[in-house]
Design a protein that fits this description.
383 residues; alpha+beta; Ribosomal Protein S5, domain 2; Alpha-Beta Plaits; binds alpha-D-galactopyranose
Length: 383
């Protein structure tokens, strides 16, 4: 769907909800991650790109100090919150994400006031494509846009993450918000999660006769369910025992072998080798060698499955079926335990899709969802 059609639809819905026109419409994309999983909170490297789908927010200022939020994905009464009393723990459910952004902006001294928001999404829910980061980033752009505040995007990413960590209470890293706010069309973002420095790396699969395919495995996950936090804790413990600030500082996998606990050894080995794979993949992309990066994706999956132990049966089956049917590489994407797989496939990808679909049918699983993932533009004002 075009930006214009998206903007018209959500502006029309804003009109139905609030009986007036919005002052603006913003969109923030979901993200895919080519490679670099569970490296962001270890201050390593990631290589995500923006999707062509995301979260839309139509918005207008209010002068009564209230934040009124409606979501098309959560029909019913709007969330109506007096801004002055919005604080962590006071707002629950989906409304905590937009409320948390208003809170984080105000905490950082950005004078956002009341607003009416109408939110819609073109992302599949719970598929591990960062619909929550897209929601946070769209609201952050809307509120700063409405109040004429010029906040640099890297700072906005940090504030959006703060909303998720400190207001909603989900301990995610910085990758998803950075991808939504900083990616460019036809590029991935090589982000150094320690320095915050990002650089655009060309990612044009179509020009190489290839495509990036996302397979929504249908298995659902929640970052707040404790397993993600457990992995974070294991990484911190491994870093402590190795005498470094964080696993980013471990130069090679052999150093991780010094850990006495086999579980911590595996966790550290994943992070250290994954960081290497990210920098290798970025170098290959810069040299025009996207096809060659496929093997790195598959190696990443093996490492996430065997060393980090965050994969799930549908992801393993999808990766195997994709590779057998001609994919150049495939891996689980995101935090793990559910969500999507990303595969680098020939542009003519019917055989890969069919093979995955047949495998699911044979196992009696519900059919997977398929999504084309052309590397797209970051968050923006649509009108
Ligand atoms: C989730 C988090 C990210 C990142 C990934 C794993 O998507 O939100 O910050 O840690 O998991 O790479």
């Amino acid at each position: 769907m075009s930006d214009e059609a998206d903007a018209n639809r959500v502006a029309g819905w804003f009109g139905d909800c609030y009986g007036r026109q919005p002052e603006g419409v913003w969109q923030a994309p979901g993200r895919a991650n080519l490679i670099g999983e569970h490296t962001d909170y270890n201050q390593g490297w990631v290589l995500p790109f923006a999707l062509d789908r995301g979260v839309l927010v139509a918005a207008a200022c209010r002068h009564d100090g209230m934040l009124v939020i409606r979501s098309r994905q959560a029909p019913g009464e709007p969330a109506t919150l007096p801004l002055a009393t919005v604080a962590p723990g006071r707002v629950t459910g989906w409304a905590a994400y937009p409320a948390g952004v208003a809170w984080a902006l105000r905490e950082a001294g950005h004078p956002v006031g009341g607003a009416s928001l109408a939110i819609d999404s073109t992302l599949p829910q719970g598929a591990g494509l960062s619909s929550s980061a897209a929601l946070e980033c769209a609201v952050a752009l809307a509120l700063t846009g409405l109040y004429g505040l010029d906040v640099p995007r890297p700072d906005l990413a940090i504030l959006a993450r703060r909303a998720e960590n400190d207001f909603v209470g989900v301990p995610s890293g910085i990758m998803d918000q950075s991808a939504s706010l900083l990616c460019q069309a036809s590029h991935a973002l090589l982000l150094d999660c320690r320095s915050g420095e990002g650089s655009a790396v060309p990612l044009e699969p179509a020009a190489a006769g290839l495509a990036l395919l996302i397979v929504d495995t249908g298995a659902r996950h929640a970052l707040g369910d404790g397993r993600y936090a457990l992995r974070r804790g294991e990484c911190d413990q491994a870093a402590g025992e190795l005498g470094v600030r964080c696993l980013r500082d471990v130069a090679d996998a052999a150093a991780a072998d010094g850990l006495a606990d086999p579980v911590l050894r595996r966790r550290a080995r994943h992070v250290v080798t994954e960081n290497h794979r990210v920098t290798q993949a970025a170098a290959m992309l810069r040299a025009g060698g996207l096809a060659g990066a496929g093997a790195l994706l598959s190696a990443s999956h093996t490492s996430l499955r065997d060393d980090f132990e965050v994969s799930w049966p549908e992801a393993d089956t999808t990766v195997d079926a994709a590779l057998e049917a001609g994919a150049l590489g495939a891996r689980m994407m995101g935090g793990g335990f559910g969500g999507s797989v990303i595969a680098l496939v020939p542009a003519a990808q019917d055989a890969v899709r069919a093979a995955i679909g047949e495998r699911y049918a044979r196992l009696g699983w519900p059919a997977p969802g398929f999504l084309d993932a052309p590397p797209s533009a970051s968050a923006r004002r649509l009108r």
